[in-house]
Task: structure prediction
Amino acid sequence: MAEDVEPAADGVRVPRILCIAGTDPSGGAGLLADVKAVAAMGGYGMGVVTAVTVQNTVGVSDVHPVPLETVIAQLDAVADDVEIDAVKIGMLGEAALVHAVGEWLRRRRPPNVILDPVMVATTGGRLASDDAAGMLRDLVPLVDLVTPNVPELAVLCGEETATDIEMIVGQAELVHEQCGSAVLATTGDLADGSSEDVLVETDERWRTTRRLPYVRVDTPHTHGTGCSLSSALATARVGVDDWGAAYERVRPWIDGALQGGLHLGVGRGSGPLDHTWFLHH
Ligand code: PLP
Result:
């Protein structure tokens, strides 16, 4: 790994964030969303492509996996050259790649690794085979934070899809107990309309479960919210003490991006967030 660079004169170093994900050519989800979110939070975004999807805001029509060796070669090319401050893992798609990325994490041990256990696109298309979805559970103990939405959380803990916030708390605590990594269960897609995300983490010896209230934005344009939130969290985590502090930095930004998405006018379906909403007022 290259020598670490000196921080700028004011002591602020731009966090270098590696995103591992598929592409969405309409730019709302996947790697393009990741890198926009990283930039919006003040980081330097890098991207390793795992699959090329054919999709727009209406749906996914095709998925072309990048050969496994090429994905790992991309990861090594970056890690050989750049000191990585945080990693965000999104769509992996195939079981063999889930395994290979796990091996890569064991070998390179990057800090602040977030897994967004991507299984299905917001617009409904499958983005992970059944095998891969099952194997994502094995990847969770190798990461620092996992950020499942409601159906992904159910798959990770092998239970029914939660229908209320109490079930979410129970499932998030279960995944944390089983895997050891921090869990941020996002609840934007929870049917009971509650508006609290759930963060479970262990600090020293004490497990804490926190309900993090947010104001629900009434919008159909949520394409890429999971990708964007997890990449923003990876960036915000650098330089703060825990995931709760990172979440506090990210929440106002993601709320603004959801609000801004109402006015973007991108596509006819579930449109994207406005990652740089703060520049558009
Ligand atoms: N990764 C890719 C490549 C995608 O295309 C999508 C959704 O379309 C996702 C991840 C997941 O998106 P979301 O953040 O909306 O869950």
Helices lie at 30-40, 68-81, 95-108, 130-139, 150-157, 165-179, 225-237, 243-261. Residues 236 and 246 are 5 Å apart (CA to CA). The mean pLDDT is 94. Strands lie at 16-23, 44-55, 60-65, 86-89, 113-115, 145-146, 182-185, 196-203, 206-213.
